[in-house]
Every structure is written in C-alpha cells, then in structure tokens.
C-alpha cells in the first residue's frame, strides 16, 4: 500500500498486476564483453601512476584510452563516489541512469560505464571486481550501485539545516575545479551522478526506499576498469566511510582510497580502437 493512496483497487486489479515483467531493452544486442581480450591485455600491464585520495576529500586522475585503472581499498572499509568525463570534452560524462537501464542497479565485471547523450558509448569496461562474490544479499542489497546520486550539501541543508562542506558533491567539485584550474562555481554543473564504488545498497522490500548498509569491502579489495576513451576521473572518499551508519558529517571513520593506472603492452592493443560516438544521425525528425 502506498503511503498516501486514496483509491480502491478496481475489480480487475489482479489481472492487471499479473502481466509479465519484461526487460526494457534488447540488451542481448549490446556489444559483447570480450573477456579474453581484456584478460590478455591486463596480464601484460604495468603500473605507471598512483593517486591517493585522502579521507573526506576527492582527487582527479587521467587515464589514456587503452589503459586500465583500479580503485583500491586501503587501511579500512571505505566507499568511493566516481565521476568520469571525456578528457577532451567535459560535456561528455558518465550516464548513471542509462548504465542502470542497460545493465542493472549494481554493476560488476563485464558491465560498461556509458556516457550521456548524444555520445552514448562505453567510457569504461569493468574488468575485475574482487567483491563479485557478494552478489545479492537477504535484504536485496548489492555492491557498486548506479542508483544513488552522491551525498551533497544541498540535500543535507534541506534536511538538517547545516552547512557541511565534505559531501561527495563538494569533494568532486573541488577536485574538478582544481584539475581545470578554475573556480568551483564555474565547474560545479559538470559534477554528475556517480558510480557508488564499494557501496552496499538496495531498496527496502516494503516501501522500496533506497537503503545502505556497511560495505563488505576490506583493504586489498579493488574494482578495475579498462578506459575505452581518454578519461578524466574524479574519486571522492565519501564522508559516510563504509556507509553503515550515517553520511554528510564527520562522525564516521573514513579511510583513503588509491587509484592505480596501468598500461598494457602495445601488442596487446594492436587490433583495438577507442570507442566511437553513437551513430544516430542527430536530426530528431527535422
Ligand atoms: Zn558521499
């Protein structure tokens, strides 16, 4: 029963509810995940850079197309909020909502992170996820969601009437401004809905509300991506820490996260090319 429902069910309610659920998109037509290509490439890769993201803060990083990057847990359980942009055009960025529609509420190995319209192409492919054993728990929770948007100071002010400056939205805004050598006000609108790395979330069974529970991530765990285009990334260490209690405050233990960049051997990419933009003609019927 919905909280404010006012209308009695019609006599054929059961029949209307009994219609089959069908997956919205013909996702079997998506470009296949070529596991042997990525596995071969990653076996030849060497680490070329590393960025440490301090607790309750964010850092930016660049990943050339054809390189891998890993987000690595260190010191303690910590959730990360990830933004991705086309390194050469900030208007092309990660599209959390379409990624959710094409894959699922939570993503893992073989899933892609898609860019917004009109580009709509894979920005990155997930190639390894040490938390893939978790699957779905008794509460319906899973790991690495593309449901939640990011903690932000505006929602926090609306609900709690305090100015808190280390929400993921603010952390990402500062990191992006720093990477572009500009002011936060000029760049804030480029910060977008995130991939919630390592976060354990779902919807409550009775009211379908978004919930979080303590992340099962432990030091040494990582999620690994292959950059399908030249990427600019920013990663925030959420002030919620493992997101097992609260967020948008300084009360939870928080830990650093590490972003590692890896370069595969040139021969592993001999037949590979960065992903082209979407092929729709863009005329919208005119
Ligand atoms: Zn956050």
The percent range for helix content is: 10-25%
- Based on secondary structure, the structural category is alpha+beta
Per the principal axes of the C-alpha atoms, what is the gross shape? globular
> Measured on Cα atoms, how large is the radius of gyration?
20 Å
**Which ions, cofactors or small ligands are bound in this entry?**
zinc ion
Could you give the order of the helices and strands? HHEEEEEHEEEHHHEEEEE
Question: How would a crystallographer describe the biggest sheet?
Answer: 7 strands, antiparallel
Provide the number of structural domains. Answer: 1
Low-confidence stretches: none
Distance between the termini: 45 Å
- Please work out how many helical segments DSSP would assign: 6
Mean pLDDT: 97
**Beta content:** 25-35%
Overview of the structural elements:
InterPro entries: DUF1989. This is DUF1989 domain-containing protein. This protein is α+β, with helices and mostly antiparallel strands and 286 residues long. The protein has one domain (31-266). 16% of the residues lie in helices and 28% in strands. The chain has 6 helices and 13 strands. It has helices at 13-17, 35-43, 96-102, 153-160, 168-180, 184-187, and strands at 46-53, 58-63, 68-73, 80-86, 89-93, 112-114, 122-129, 142-145, 195-203, 210-213, 222-227, 231-237, 257-263. The mean pLDDT is 97. Bound molecules: zinc ion. Zinc ion binds at residues 81, 150-151, 167-168, 238, 240, 247.
């Amino acid at each position: 029963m919905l909280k404010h429902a006012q209308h009695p069910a019609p006599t054929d309610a059961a029949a209307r509810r009994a219609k089959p659920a069908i997956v919205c998109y013909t996702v079997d037509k998506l470009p296949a995940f070529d596991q042997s290509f990525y596995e071969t490439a990653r076996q030849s890769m060497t680490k070329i850079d590393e960025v440490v993201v301090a607790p309750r803060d964010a850092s930016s990083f660049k990943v050339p197309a054809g390189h891998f990057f890993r987000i690595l847990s260190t010191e303690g359980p910590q959730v990360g909020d990830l933004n991705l942009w086309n390194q050469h055009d900030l208007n092309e960025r990660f599209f959390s909502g379409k990624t959710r529609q094409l894959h699922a509420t939570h993503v893992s190995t073989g899933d892609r992170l898609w860019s917004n319209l009109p580009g709509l192409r894979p920005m990155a492919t997930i190639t390894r996820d040490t938390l893939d054993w978790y699957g779905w728990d008794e509460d319906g929770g899973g790991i690495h969601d593309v449901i939640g948007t990011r903690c932000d100071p505006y929602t926090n002010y609306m609900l709690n009437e305090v100015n808190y400056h280390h929400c993921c939205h603010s952390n990402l805004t500062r990191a992006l401004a720093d990477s572009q050598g500009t002011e936060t006000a000029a760049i804030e609108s480029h910060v977008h809905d995130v991939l919630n790395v390592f976060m354990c979330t779902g919807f409550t069974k009775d009211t379908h509300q978004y919930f979080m529970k303590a992340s099962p991530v432990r030091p040494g765990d990582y999620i690994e991506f292959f950059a399908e285009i030249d990427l600019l990334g920013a990663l925030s260490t959420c002030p919620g820490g493992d997101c097992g209690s609260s967020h948008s405050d300084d009360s939870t233990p928080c830990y650093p996260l590490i972003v590692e960049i890896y370069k595969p051997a040139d021969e592993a990419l001999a037949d590979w090319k960065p992903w082209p933009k979407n092929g729709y003609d863009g005329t919208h019927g005119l």
